[in-house]
Amino acid sequence: MKKDIFELFAPCISDHLQETVYQNDEYRKSVQESAKILEQLRKRLEPEGEKLLDDYFIAEGHTAALCEELVYTQGMKDLLALLSFLTA
């Protein structure tokens, strides 16, 4: 089956976006703050609650990764459409 060109580049796109995001100071500070709050929360949870929280973060991470890929792919499609329009 023929793959969409964007599907072929998805792994590279994801890696590139992660590198770009991690270079942003505001993002890194936000991640550090989130980690501090999470640590405080984990100290207050029973093991069962901690397991549910881990499962929640796994599901949310997967959702965020899918959203990231969809938004980037749509942006690339929009750019190609704009370039096609401008060169027509």
Annotate the secondary structure layout.
Blueprint: H1 5-22, H2 25-43, H3 47-87
Helix pairs in contact: 1-3
End-to-end distance, in Å? 31 Å
State the shape: elongated
The biggest beta sheet, please? none
Low-confidence stretches: none
Number of helices: 3
Estimate the strand proportion: under 5%
Order of helices and strands: HHH
The residue fraction in helices comes out at: over 70%
Rg from Cα: 18 Å
Mean pLDDT comes to 86
Class from secondary-structure proportions: mainly alpha
According to DSSP, the number of beta strands is: 0
Care to describe what's here?
The chain has about 90 residues and is mainly α. The chain has one domain (about 5-85). It is built from three helices and no strands. The protein has helices at about 5-20, 25-45, 45-85. The protein starts with a helix and ends with a helix. The model has no long low-confidence stretch (mean pLDDT about 85).
Question: In summary, what is this structure?
Answer:
This protein has one domain. 89% of the residues lie in helices and 0% in strands.
